[in-house]
What we know:
mainly alpha, 15 helices, 0% strand
Amino acid sequence: MYRYVIKRxxxxxxxxxxxxxxxxxxxxxxxxxxxxxLTGGDATQEEIDAxxxxxxxxxxxxxxxxxxxxxxxxxxxxxxxxxxxxxxxSYMEKLPATLTLALASIAVSIAISIPLGIASAVxxxxxxxxxxxxxxxxxxxxxxxxxxxxxxxxxxxxxGWLPSGGSEGFKSIILPAITVGTGLTxxxxxxxxxxxxxxxxxxxxxxxxxxxxxxNVVIKxxxxxxxxxxxxxxxxxxxGSCLGGxxxxxxxxxxxxxxxxxMDAVNSRDIPMVTGCIILKTFTISIILLIVDLLYAAVDxxxxxxxxxxxx
Length: 312
């Protein structure tokens, strides 16, 4: 098990290096100039040249990348061109808000999708199943920003029940959590249903029913546990994505999270901020996926034995 964990952590090194290379070059190729953001377009050419020299933007892109890489290898993600603050500190300041939104969204998704997916699988082909799948397809098809705007119009502007944005108190998180959780719910419902359909047809469940085990016990104790592995995969992947920042949702609701930080940095061409945030997002998702793999071992003894042999 320990060998597997160490192997996965070592694999993060080339992933982070490749991510930094791609993001650094793509953001440098994007149109726009951070110097224009800093000066407001009113500076003289001498002042612009002085700022570019101070930021190191007068050097070739490969030189700047290897300078950035040298700092990265020492744990330094650089400082923002716009605010001058450490990228790491800026990211960690926004992470609690994103973590709150991610956990709330996952909680909404799990509370709705797993019971709905189980009910659809148990009553396959019935009206309940068809209604559940249509609802899941509808939720999967709706763009987050569009749903968010509809919720703002309905519950903030028309009814006045909930705030339209910000992060002031419990009410502020309801609409963003529903917006993000709706898309997650749709995917998780379909995954739960598909996994349950594979399990409930197994011979050992027929034997349990033949022995007189109540149907609710068969479903909850025997079928659900064996159907959890693909469900855990989806939950873990969704959690990792949410922790990386729900960019559109955070922008629509003015939620002060990582996604909005990345969007603002892209708009201002803040190269160190964009690159550092994406690297931290990659690291976060990789750690979440590692935890998901370890949860597999807790659920499935076969996988646990493979990890004990070195993860082969």
